[in-house]
Design brief:
By secondary structure, the chain is an alpha/beta fold. It has two domains: 113 residues, no CATH class; 185 residues, Vaccinia Virus protein VP39 (Rossmann fold, 3-Layer(aba) Sandwich), CATH 3.40.50.150. 36% of the residues lie in helices and 27% in strands. A hairpin with a 5-residue loop joins strand 1 and strand 2. The two termini are 29 Å apart. The N terminus is likely disordered.
């Protein structure tokens, strides 16, 4: 695990763990995913520097409602969401850019912010540094301790010596399948102590045409973002994927209540992943699944957290009910 520590007065210090720890994780994930019957590359590998920039562009697209709708909920209910919270850690999982956390920090005011430590957690060091440096410039009184880590695996290693408000925005929970989600939420439950809370962003079920348009924009920025994951593998694992051999596909599956993103081979493909000693072949029309985006109802959200020993204590949505922020706490007795 890497740690990037930003001290007060805008001084930046960087501490890194062994790079092999990160490398071995991507190697394990890719080997497992690309030797499966349905080939998979985990969506967390979208977010290198280029992928993060592309996603920021996606968030501004007229078709892509999730970011602006979630931001509207955060801004509308920010005072309620951070009511009574000070002298603790704001821990944001999969933090990315700093737009959403700013909605909460702005609602605190300078004196309360001075008592807070912000702990962004992300797999991309470049995204962490860029976002954290921007926050330190905007809020010089704020302490920031940024952690480069895979929060689905390293949650127990994230600093937890103070009272905390755990944040998981963007409906990133929807990128986890049911088993992964259960494991992750139980790890969240294990980290929550008395007085801690968990704010969970949830993209809600809505008409199919709206969901599919959000992942098939007319400018094809989402297609470039999807293909970028192959560039990550080419760079990190010395692979030989040709982006021209694939096309972007995204669709809503009503049975599983999720959008799936795939890369579909438009010709027979053979790619070599030299660092793994692995050759990957695909027939024309065969796909690599790169992301799932589950969509929720109030009932499915409540069931999901309940199975992990958590309970929803508050619920905030936009007027259309397109996106929700659930306030979650640990059940008593767990």
């Amino acid at each position: 695990m890497y740690q990037v520590l930003l001290a007060e007065k805008r001084e930046i210090r960087v501490q890194k763990g062994p790079k092999k720890l990160v490398d071995s994780q991507i190697a394990r994930d890719v080997r497992r995913g690309l030797t499966a019957v349905q080939k998979i590359i985990p969506s967390k590998y979208f977010y290198d520097a280029r992928g993060s920039r592309l996603f920021e562009k996606i968030c501004l697209l007229p078709e892509y409602y999730p970011t602006r709708t979630e931001l509207s909920v955060l801004r509308r209910y920010a005072s309620e969401l951070i009511d009574g919270f000070d002298k603790g850690d704001l821990v944001e999982l999969g933090s990315g850019s700093n737009l959403k956390i700013r909605a909460l920090l702005n609602a605190m005011g300078r004196s309360r912010r001075a008592t807070i430590r912000y702990v962004p957690v992300d797999i991309s060091e470049e995204a962490l540094l860029s976002a954290a440096q921007g926050l330190v410039r905007r809020y010089p009184e704020l302490k920031v301790a940024a952690v480069q880590a895979d929060f689905t695996r390293d949650l127990s290693n994230i600093p937890s010596d103070r009272r905390k408000l755990l944040l998981f925005f963007g409906s990133t929970i929807g990128n986890l399948d049911q088993d992964e989600c259960r494991i992750f939420l139980r790890a969240v439950a294990d980290t929550l102590k008395a007085g801690d809370r968990f704010l969970l962003g949830l993209d809600m079920l809505k008409p199919r045409e709206i969901l599919e348009a959000a992942y098939n924009d007319t400018q094809r920025i989402t297609a470039a973002f999807n293909k970028n994951i192959l560039l990550v593998l080419n760079r990190e694992l010395d692979a030989t994927f040709d982006l021209n051999d694939f096309e972007h596909v995204a669709f809503f599956d009503p049975h599983s209540e999720r959008v799936e993103m795939h890369l579909r081979a438009n010709c027979p493909v053979t790619a070599h992943i030299r660092d793994l000693g692995l050759s990957v072949t695909l027939d024309k029309g065969e796909t690599i699944r790169t992301e799932i985006c589950r969509k929720f109802s109030r009932v499915t959200a409540e069931t999901m957290v309940d199975e992990a020993g958590l309970t929803i204590s508050g619920w905030h949505s936009d007027p259309k009910g397109w996106f929700s922020i659930a306030e979650v706490v640990r059940k008593s007795g767990w």
